[in-house]
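ok, trying the design again with the full structure, not the truncated one.
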């Protein structure tokens, strides 16, 4: 075996293994085509952040998005002193919508562990939360680790709790784990790594392979078989939730929000953040240089599917993108 994670197979894993057919690649996003397959969200922040999401044109012109270091760069403005209404940032989502599959993201850098930042790599379906949300990377402020979380409408529960997201959406079901290099500065210190998320009718499972460890060779060979990877960091499965009913047609998102319903709400409870400004908005407005490291550098995102997986292609005209 080419990797060092401890194997903790359970009978459930064996069951899932027996049911699986091989994966074939469906979409591969990287420095050659990322901005044709992803579109920019430039509306108001649904989580009420102090953020001004840019259009593709604006982001490109301001060098907040483009290709850098052979990867895809998505950043936050680190120049404007006291921007009105929010600091410029980026949020992109796939035009295609995926139902089930294996999502493998190779990420070299993510937004730093900085007061005010709320960074996420996640997916969701239309009519939130009816078609579900899968949070693969998500954290705020000075976090150095994050949790895998699902949000759904009523009637979906796993061992980790009820995934139902009423009201402000803060509820959900999260899987605690012992990995320590999942987010922010801790992730960047090791050059990032590969996040793999598998979504089948039976389970949603997560793995993280740090850059400094050995990676499963079948990932580089583009013939991934999660059943050879050892125990996932988190598994959501069982009779309490029909995954097929609660998760459907997801667009995949990378975004860097600032303040808002999570980062802003807990800003004051972090003593280091609280000592620098009286509100999250004030801090973000007054300290542009602190957001220099609040960027994503994405080597690739590859989506694999088996029979029964589905992808709906958006018919809109691809945008040209150079930066
Ligand atoms: C980059 O994406 C293109 C288009 O999907 C694909 O043909 C190519 O193999 C990818 N490159 C790598 C290194 O994965
Ligand atoms: C992330 O930081 C917030 C405070 O800003 C804290 O409430 C939360 O527990 C932290 N989470 C992790 C996983 O460190």
């Amino acid at each position: 075996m080419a990797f060092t994670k401890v194997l903790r197979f359970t009978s459930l894993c064996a069951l899932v293994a027996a049911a699986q057919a091989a994966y074939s690649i469906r979409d591969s996003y990287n420095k050659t085509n990322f901005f044709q397959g992803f579109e920019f969200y430039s509306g108001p922040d649904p989580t009420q952040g102090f953020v001004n999401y840019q259009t593709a044109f604006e982001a490109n012109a301001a060098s907040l998005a483009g290709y850098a270091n052979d990867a895809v760069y998505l950043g936050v403005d680190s120049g404007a002193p006291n921007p009105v209404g929010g600091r410029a940032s980026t949020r992109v989502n796939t035009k295609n919508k995926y139902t089930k599959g294996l999502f493998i993201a190779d990420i070299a850098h993510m937004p730093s562990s900085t007061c005010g930042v709320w960074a996420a790599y996640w997916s969701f379906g239309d009519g939130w939360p009816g078609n579900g949300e899968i949070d693969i990377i998500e954290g705020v402020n000075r976090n150095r680790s994050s949790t895998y979380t699902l949000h759904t409408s009523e009637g979906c529960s796993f061992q980790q709790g009820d995934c139902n997201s009423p009201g402000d959406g803060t509820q959900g079901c999260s899987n605690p784990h012992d990995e320590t290099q999942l987010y922010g500065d801790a992730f960047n210190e090791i050059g990032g790594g590969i996040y793999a998320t598998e979504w089948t009718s039976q389970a949603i499972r997560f793995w993280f392979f740090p850059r400094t460890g050995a990676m499963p060779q079948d990932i580089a060979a583009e013939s991934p078989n999660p059943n050879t990877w050892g125990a996932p960091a988190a598994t959501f499965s069982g009779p309490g939730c029909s995954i097929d009913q609660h998760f459907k047609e997801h667009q995949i998102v990378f975004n860097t929000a600032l303040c808002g319903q999570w980062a802003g709400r807990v800003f004051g409870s972090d003593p280091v953040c609280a000592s620098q400004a009286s509100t999250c908005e004030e801090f973000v407005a007054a300290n542009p240089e602190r957001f220099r490291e609040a960027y994503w550098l994405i080597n690739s995102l590859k989506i694999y599917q088996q029979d029964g997986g589905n992808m709906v292609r958006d018919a809109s005209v691809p945008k040209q993108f150079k930066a």
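Keeping the full-length input from now on. The chain has one domain: 23-217+229-312.
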